[in-house]
Amino acid sequence: MNYRSFGATGIQVSEIGLGAWQLANPDWHLSDRNEAERIVHCSLEVGCNFFDTAPGYGGGVSEEILGKALKPVKREQIVICTKTGYTADGVEDFSTGAIRPILETSLRRLQTDYVDILLLHNPPRALMDGRVATQYAELEALKQEGKIRVYGVSLDWREEMELVMATTQSQAFEVYFNAFYQEMLPAFTVAQQRGIGLIVKVPLDSGWLSGRYRGNHRFDDVRNRWTPEVIARRAALVEKFAQIAPPDRSLAHTALQFCLAQPGVSTVIPGAKSVEQALDNIAAAEKPLPAECVQAIYDLWRNEIASDPLPW
User: Fold this and answer.
1) What are the start-end ranges of the E strands in the chain?
2) From CA 286, how far away is CA 9, in angstroms rounded?
3) Catalytic residue among 3, 57, 114, 151
């Protein structure tokens, strides 16, 4: 495993982390906590040290599993990122007064007295303006108390990222970015210059870029939000993406390596439903994507998607 600096924070993170949304999560038709713990343990064994979760993932189950699985590990050897804005019961509450109690319950589930990174979990855009939002003062207070090391925002659009960078002291962003969604890319350079760590979420476009779904696939989990038209368009783009991928690697590795090819990116957090899937994701960090493939993926976005982005 290779490691990168998380901006200028002094934190070192594995290039591939574990997105823990799927761990024993009924929304993904998963419930086996033992398998979820094995995913965490096997990820650790091959050098993954970055774990991303949130209170609402499986109604708190994701944090509980991480807390149990990571407990034997020396705390300074792992990096935990969780979020605020939603409770484990799914109640939305981005109020300043809710940040501390939501964090405290996360700390209990995670069996730790601090988290390395705390993010506002896709808040309303009005709360991304630090000139008016009081949430950032509370996050700074929690940092000074040692309950968090770094804070920031999970978000989806370049305009949002630029606003938070311009008006807050945030040092972390979890950004929606992949071969099929590159809208935020121009802001990465500014983040890098400011010493901000970038976490890439949804790097496999919810599974499409793994190559597992070809043609008119139908979903019965949280991905059933897509219309047949969106599914057909994604399927056609997957075939074009497959033509770009080098013959010596899978579509999933190509997609993850594309994210890692961005200099400002600190870590990429694909999810995993099985140990095998987690280990395969982590193996993507073994070699870089050729420059001509990176350029071809930029071109695919610009020519086929940028003017009409795919809905998440």
Assistant:
1) 3-5, 12-14, 18-19, 50-52, 79-84, 115-121, 148-155, 172-176, 197-201, 265-268
2) 25
3) 57
Q: Which two tokens stand for residue 311?
A: 């809905």
- Does the pTM of the predicted model rise above 0.85? yes
- C-alpha distances in Å from residue 173, one per residue of 95, 192, 272: 20, 11, 21
- CA-closest candidate to residue 272, choices 14, 104, 21: 21
Dihedral angle sign, alpha carbons of residues 115, 120, 122, 128: negative
136 given a catalytic annotation:
no
Q: The tokens of 42 are what?
A: 């096997």
Predicted confidence band at 213 (pLDDT cuts at 50, 70, 90)?
A: confident
Q: Per-residue confidence at 149, pLDDT binned at 50, 70, 90?
A: very high
Bigger pLDDT: 276 vs 221:
276
Class of domain 3-206+251-287: alpha beta
Specify whether the CB–CB gap between 111 and 73 falls below 8 A: no
CA 310 to chain centre: 18
